[in-house]
Model the fold of this input.
Amino acid sequence: MRHKKASPSPTPAPEETPTPTPSETTTPWPSGHAPSGKKGWPNATLSPDEIVGYENYPPKVREILDAGLTLTKQNLGYTYGSADPKNGGMDCSGFVYFVLQQNGFPDVPRDSSQQYVWVRKAGDFSAVLSRNEDSFELDDLKPGDLLFWRGTYSIDRDPPITHTMIYLGREKRTKKRVMLGSSDGRTYDGKQRWGVSVFDFKLPPPPKSGDAKISPVFVGYGRIPGLTSD
Done:
């Protein structure tokens, strides 16, 4: 059963030693995809048969994830403020907003903070404090769940949620957890990506800074309101 109170815990993890990658879009970075002066690797994608048990996911979950995976193949950049692939890119909450709007969830809010409120009000949310990937706090994590972070950048909002993605499941090749969304530097296979992509979902080590306000923190996950398990 989901927990009813949210308690935070840290987020993105350091890069890992790269292993041979599966499917990656091979077109070069369009102008503006990777920040100036930073090396960005191509967006990564996966096919359903590269994900453990994908064929057994509920039909509506597959529909949502299929839509998200299609976007990872379009070489879309990270564009702050965009919720439309026609702009050449989207931000993290814009990706979630677009995918859910297009697949029967007209009430989904636009920004990550209000998406978090939307999930919390539905009462199906699990908080995560542990940094252990085998923690019981992740036992309820299911494909299609929305993932939430705070502290990924400085902004004055309440609740202070700043980042969101969609949980995809485990990759067959590595057995690691992966997620879908748009990011300005998260990793997949140990390589940083700027744009709409598949990314690693990992619990991080403790933040190096003693100031929690500038440390990204993974808050928890929740079911999309109105999404059935049938």
Observations:
- The helical segments are 59-72, 92-101, 112-122.
- Residues 59-72 form the longest helix (14 residues).
- The first strand starts at residue 9 and ends at 10.
- Residues 3-33 have pLDDT under 50 and may be disordered.
